[in-house]
Amino acid sequence: MIEEEKKHKARLDFHSIWEYSPAPESSDHIQLKEQYELFINGAFVAPEQGEYFDTINPAKEEKLSSVALATEADIDKAVKSARNAYKKYWSKLSNRDRGKYIFRIARLIQERAREFAVIESLDGGKPIRESRDVDIPLAAAHFFYYAGWADKLKYAFPGRDPMPLGVAGQIIPWNFPLLMAAWKIAPALATGNTVVIKPAETTPLTALKLAEIIQEADLPPGVVNIVTGAGKTGEAIVQHPDVNKIAFTGSTQVGKIIQKSLAGTDKKYSLELGGKGANIIYEDAAIDQAVEGIINAIFFNQGHVCCAGSRLFVQESVADEVISKLKDRMDTLIVGDPLDKNTDIGAINSKAQLNKINELIESGLNEGAEIYQLECDLPGQGYWCRPTLFQEVSQSHRIVQEEIFGPVLTIQTFRTPEEVIKKANNTPYGLSGGLWTDKGSKIFQTGSKLRAGVVWSNTFNKFDATSPFGGYKESGMGREGGLHGLLPYLELQ
Amino acid sequence: MSNRVNILKTYKLYINGAFPRTESGRYFIIKDKSGKQLANMCRASRKDFRNAVVAARKASDGWSSRSAYNRGQILYRVGELMEGRKEQFVDELTARGYSKSKAEKEVEASIDRFIYYAGWSDKYQQIFGTVNPVASSHFNFSMPEPTGVVAVIAPDDQPLISLSTMIASVIVGGNTGIFLSSETQPITAITLAEVLNSSDVAAGVVNILTGFKEELITHFSSHMDVNSIWYSGTDQNAKKTIQEKASLNVKRTHFKNFIDWMSDDAENPYLILDFQEIKTTWHPVGI
């Protein structure tokens, strides 16, 4: 009890002693149209069937704009325009000039970065700090990096003659809307392909703003086509017979459907799917840094991260200390207005996602896990989820097995490296893993045993345009970023 | 038309982000195609060169620790600014006897050259770096790192594209340098220095001298704080002198030259690799 008191005295009480004043990023300069059309063949055109859907601000449940719903006829138009652009312009340009167009996109994103960051936070609910410091700069960096590759491809694959595939159909998720668009469009264009891309239905706005930039950059019409809609629109892209390549980022469930539906066709595909990343804390880790890393691994972007470190494994000898410090640190997190620069945890992206998270939290309780949640006031409007920890969980619990895609962390303990490697790999997923230790040799030993496409050591959730990213096993196939990110868009003759 | 008396430009050296006159006070005359005097150029001395080496060495730490992405952005910025000065470069080349279209081609190619090498900033490591599957229980990788301070003697012909290629390929890999411009057509080099100075290339990363090769070659190749030298001339005696003097401090010598610096031959990552050292790092693997 005395111990307990001491601990609490030492704790920083951010909420009552040091209250934060609101520090909202201004959204006055943001200009959104009431209605957005489809971006096909270099122009904004109305959808064939004249249907639109709303995109809302998940922090306020207010409509931001309405967006065209693309149906099969629109997708056909977009694919035709991409094919035409491929034949008529894009494949005829020199590699150097193709690169120059992509450089332009990178520079224009940098110029309009703040505007994009605010829209990203309005439309998707993520904290402005993240959209400003991570999403948008990384998106620009991706275009910059791949622009440079356009006239250097022969050096990437010596002894081969790299050729574009043709028209790429791309479907991206709502967790990093502009960044995912950059991950898809930049390598596709650099390798000489043209694009039909569909942003997620809950976060279409930055992609449509990107369409404006593509116009400003004066890209030949049809090289990039941006079509909005939900699952059916995506399906129409996947099914279109004149698409040469499908690139999909999203759930494993949908990824499997896509893979199956492409059976028997010659379409090439790359899939970046779900994950259930293990974050391993060895007893010799720098504990305070590790705690910070655990927080970043699971609460970054409300946990809407396919590579989130959602399964924490702590070595038994330091488990009490780590968990106690983790709870203390979690208690300081600020949940609320995504546009506030102090906010750590923004809004959950959609009602549907919130329901899914809540359902899984419920299952954790039903299966006997011990819950710890941040106590704080939540805004009256909008979709919110408290940062959540679960202890007393086992490998078979649903919350340990299934991807929650929310701010929910499960905590398990282990005794030996062999044990934790087995537990970490005991999942159909294989996207990411983290490990914390002061011993470098351990990093490489454990890292080499993790069956995952990205391993972070003494850090987590780091991304860079030069670094390949992608999954093992049911987390997908193909890599995005870096030299290897060129491969999914090339035929190496 | 206007009977205004034009202001004539003074051409100076470019050392440590400033434009000093040569400490020697000497000059040489550059004439236009009709034989009329165009400019008095600074005739750089040994002392100017030594000052430039000090500046380059001082800038080396900061420049080589920039991220590759940042260096790429800065080189791209140089291209952007050159685009805005296109006419000036073209005028300077035509004054020396270039046709307008030939001058335009060289200026445009020079801009593109900076963009080309900007693109390599975060890629040559991915081509030339390796992870080595050693037989023992170690993680081992080899990465290129900048050689350090590079002294460069540019050719006389194609003055802008050759100098642009040499600057871009040397500095994109994190080196700093001293560049002796074309002796017969030095004017664009100083204009390029003005571009570099107003871009985000830090002071001392690029130092540009004008002067006489014959006089400076010995100093370029014998300086003990220069790590590498690139001479693109064809004079066999000069080459031999450079090789001999280079041995004083085991300077790396490079004699790559191109008959046509505009051609794609002068665009390749091996020009970057020439000014890199390979570092292999070992790390144990185990519990």
Explain what the structure shows.
The complex is a heterodimer of chains A (493) and B (287). Chain A has helices at 2-10, 72-90, 95-111, 113-124, 128-149, 153-156, 177-190, 205-216, 231-239, 252-261, 287-299, 316-331, 351-366, 398-401, 417-425, 440-449; strands spanning 35-36, 38-40, 43-45, 52-57, 62-68, 162-164, 167-171, 194-198, 224-226, 245-249, 268-272, 278-281, 311-315, 370-373, 388-391, 408-414, 432-436, 454-457, 476-477, 490-492. With 493 residues, chain A is an alpha/beta fold. In chain A, the strands form five sheets. Chain A has a seven-stranded mixed beta sheet, sandwiched between helices. A six-stranded mixed beta sheet of chain A has the order 9-8-7-10-11-19, with helices on both faces. In chain A, strands 1-5-4 form a three-stranded mixed beta sheet, with helices on one face. In chain A, helix 3 (95-111) runs antiparallel to helix 5, helix 4 packs across helix 5 and helix 5 runs parallel beside helix 7. The radius of gyration of chain A is 23 Å and the shape is globular. The termini of chain B are far apart. In chain B, the strands form three sheets. Chain B has a five-stranded parallel beta sheet with strand order 7-6-5-8-9, sandwiched between helices. In chain B, strands 3-4-10 form a three-stranded antiparallel beta sheet. Chain B has a two-stranded antiparallel sheet with strand order 1-2. By secondary structure, chain B is α/β, with parallel strands linked by helices. The A-B interface holds A 96, 99-100, 103, 141, 144-145, 147-152, 155-156, 417, 440-442, 444-445, 448, 465-466, 482-483 and B 68-69, 72-73, 76, 112, 115-116, 118-123, 126-127, 139, 268-269, 283-287.
